[in-house]
Amino acid sequence: MPRHLIALGGAALLFGASTIALQAQMVEPTAVPPPPTFAAQGKITFVGRDDIEEFKALPAYHEPDWVTKNFVDTGKLPPVAERLPKEPLVFKTGDMPDGVGQYGGTLRHVIGGRPQGWNWIAGQVQGWGGVSYAMWECLTRTGPLFHVKADELEPLPNLARSWEWSDDGHQLTMHLIEGAKWSDGAPFNADDVMFFWEDNVLDPNVAPQGGATPEAFGEGTTLKKIDDYTVLWTFKDAFPKQYLYAMAFGSFCPGPAHIMKPQHPKYSDNTYDQYVNAFPPDMLNFPTMGAWVPVAYRPDDIIVTRRNPYYWKVDEQGNQLPYFDEVQYKLSTWADRDVQAVAGSGDWSNLEQAESYVEALKRSADPKAPARLEFGPRIIGYSLDFNMSDEGWGNPDERGEAVRELNRNLDFRKAVTYGLDRQRLGDSLVKGPFTAIYPGGIYIGTSFGDADSTVYYPHSVETAKAYLEKAGLKDTDGDGFVNYPADVMGGKNVEITLMANTDYATDHNLGEAVVAMMGEIGLRVIPDFADGNRWNNLWRGGEYDWTVRRGDKELITVVQQTYQLAPVGPLTSPWHKAGSSGKLDLLPFEQELVDIVNKFINSSDNAERAQLMKDYQKIFTTNVYEAGLTNYPGALIINKRIRNVSSGTPILAFQWAEDSAIRERMYVPEDLQQNYELYPQTLPGEPGGDGPVK
Ligand code: GLA
Ligand code: CA
Fold first, then answer.
1. What is the pTM of this model?
2. Is residue 12 predicted with pLDDT exceeding 90?
3. Most CB contacts within 10 A, which of 70, 109, 480, 592?
4. Whether the Cβ atoms of residue 455 and residue 29 lie closer than 8 Å to each other
5. Are 38 and 375 in contact (CB under 8 A)?
6. What is the pLDDT of residues 471-502, one digit of tens each?
7. Ligand 1 proximal residues by C-beta, below 6 Å
C-alpha cells in the first residue's frame, strides 16, 4: 500500500508505481442502477380530503344491542347519545369500500414487540404492531392521506376538529372536539393537550415515545390554552403548515391528564423514573381516546382490548364505532405475524421482512387462501446509521468518542459505503425483483425521491481500503484489521460495535452481512444486537456507534416527520442529538441540510419544495449521511373475511397501515364472524381495576 494516498479522483501529483496502480482501481461515484421493475398490485382510489370524514350531529345514535341491554338499561352507562360529543366525527359511507358495517367480531393481530407500559407520553413502548395506533389519538391524522388527491393534501382533523390561521400566518387557532370523553368517561379537553405539551414535550426530563420535541413544531413555537376547547399556537415563521403533520401520530397524541398528572414529578413526590413507570402493562383499563381499551394482559401471551364505550366517532347512520368489539394482540414474533396471517390464524400482517416473501406469495396464490396479499411500492428501506454526535450524547467512553470522530470523517464514511455490496445484501434476503440498490436518503420512486440527484458509491473493496487509509487508518500490527494512528486509542485496532434489532430477522441478517463486508475491507465491526425494547432505548439514548435501522415515514413522504430529516433541533435527528449542553456541533454539510429542511417547512411552493429535496438528496448521498443498504416493497396481508380495507393501502406511507386502513370502520359481516372473542359482552372496567366488566 502507498504511504500517502493523495490522488483520490483528484488532480494531485502521484508518486511511485504502486500509487498509480492503486489509482487505476479506484472507483468513482456513479448514478444508482435502475431498480428491477416491480408493479404495485393494489389500485388506489383517490378522494378529496372532505370525502373521508366530517364533524356533525346526527338525528339518532346506535350501539351494539348488548351494550344497551347490559350497561345502559341497567344504569351502568349513560345512553349512547350522552356519551358522544356534541358533534362526533362521522366517517362518510362514500369512502368505505364496503359501506356501513356490522357490529361484533374480533380482529386478531399478532405482534413481535412487547409493551413496557402505557406511558407513551413519557417514552414507553406499547409493543407496536398497532397497539399504539389504537390507543393514541392525536390532534390531526395522516394515515388515510395515502388516498387523498395530491392537490388537497393536508392532515385530517381528529382531536382538533378544525383550525384557522391568523392573517399574518403566525398564529394557528385549533378547536378541539367538544364534549368528547376518555374511555372512563372523564372529559377530554384543552387540559389534556396542555399537560402533554407543558409537562412532557417541554419538560427536558421527559422524552415522549413518538419523538415529540419542541423543535418538531419549530424553534420558539408556543402553545396556549384559550378555553376548554380552544388552543392557540404561535410560530416564528408565517404559515408553517408543515407542522400540522407533526400534530399527527406520533408527536402530538396526549394522554389522560386526569390519571397521569398526579404522577408527574411536578405535581407529586415521584421521580421521573417513577412517573415513566407509573402505568405498567398490567394496569388494566388505562383510559384512552382510542377505539379499544386494554382490558387484559398476559406477558409473552396476549394483550386484549375491548370497545371504548365513549368512542367519539360514528358512521353516517349514527352507529357508534368501532364495529369490532374486541381486538387482540398475540405476543409472538414479527415473523410469526406473517405466518399466522397467511395461514388464517391471525388477521393482519405488514409483510416487511423480505426473507418470508417467497413463501408468503406462494401460499397466498391459492384461491382458497384465507388472506389477501397486496404488494405496494418500494417503501421498506434499511440503512447503516453512524452516530454523528460528538457532543456527549449517550455518554461515550474514549473508544466511543474515537469512533464518533471517525463517523464524522467523510473519507471514513466513504470507505464504509464502498465496502457494502448492496446487490449481494439484497439477494441474501430474497432473490427476485424485490430489492433495489439503495444508496441512502429519500426513496427513489416516492413523490420527492429522485434518482438523478442520488450519488451512489458502488462496491469496491480496493477503493474502500484506500479511503480507510486516507482517513488515517492502517493495519500496523498485521492482523488484518486497521488500527488507529499511534496517538489515538494507543494505536489499537479500530473496533466498532453495530446494533441491530433482533426482533426482526431482516435487521439481524443485514447486521451480520454488514459485519462480514466490513471484515472484507479490514474494519473490525462487533455485533451488539439487542431485542426491540433494548435496541429502542439505546438508539433513542444515543448509546451506540453504528446501527442497522429500518427507515421511516420521512423517507417516503418527506412531509411526515420532516424534522427527522436533519438536526433542526438538538433532539430531532435520529443519529445526531445534543448531549447535556443542549448544543449541536454540526458539520458544514449538516448545516446545509438543516437550512434546506427549514426552507422546505416554510415553503408552500411545490416546485421549490421539489427542488429543495433534490438538493437535499444530493448533499445527503454525496456525504453518505447514512449508508443505505437495501430498499424493497411491502405487502399488506389481511384476512378475506374483513371488510372496508381500501385497495392499495400501503403498509407504510404517512403512517403504518394500522392507521391508514382506519380500523375503527373495518368489520366482518355477521355470518362470517367466528367465536374468537375472549371477553364477549364486556366493556373496560375502571382504570387500574381487574379487567373488563359484564
Ligand atoms: C412495527 C411493525 C410494523 C407496524 C408498526 C406499527 O414497527 O414492524 O409493521 O406494525 O409496528 O407501529
Ligand atoms: Ca490491526
1. 0.95
2. no
3. 109
4. yes
5. yes
6. 999 999 999 999 999 999 999 999 999 999 99
7. 128-130, 132-133, 334, 350, 352, 656, 658
